[in-house]
Amino acid sequence: MLSxxxxxxxxSSDFIDWLLSVTxxxxxxxxxxxxxxxxxxxxxxxxxLLEAVHNSFRHQQSKLDQADSELDKVRFYLRMAARKQWLNxxxxxxxxxxxxxxxxxxxxxxxxxxxxxxxF
Length: 120
Known about the structure:
Blueprint: H1 7-23, H2 34-53, H3 57-83, H4 89-118
Helix pairs in contact: 1-2, 1-4, 2-3, 3-4
């Protein structure tokens, strides 16, 4: 799976672009705390995907599991931002749809790897 051919990479890049824009409106007092953690988790998700592409098949699953963990962190921080009303309802729904799609695409990659692993 090449990063420039996969919808997972383009959609995660789109999500990060959207997230960078929307977090600029979070309270200034939270930009070094929650905003940073949210953006770090999203960027770490993207990095784990890139690392998975460049790892051997055996190590790829570990990177995908780490990406899954980062996506869980993104979900957590988005829920927190919504509870604090830093995201309005429409923004939160949009983010939730984007993250859900990223999770489905990641899950498909993980399942494909598991099927390939059992073939050996």
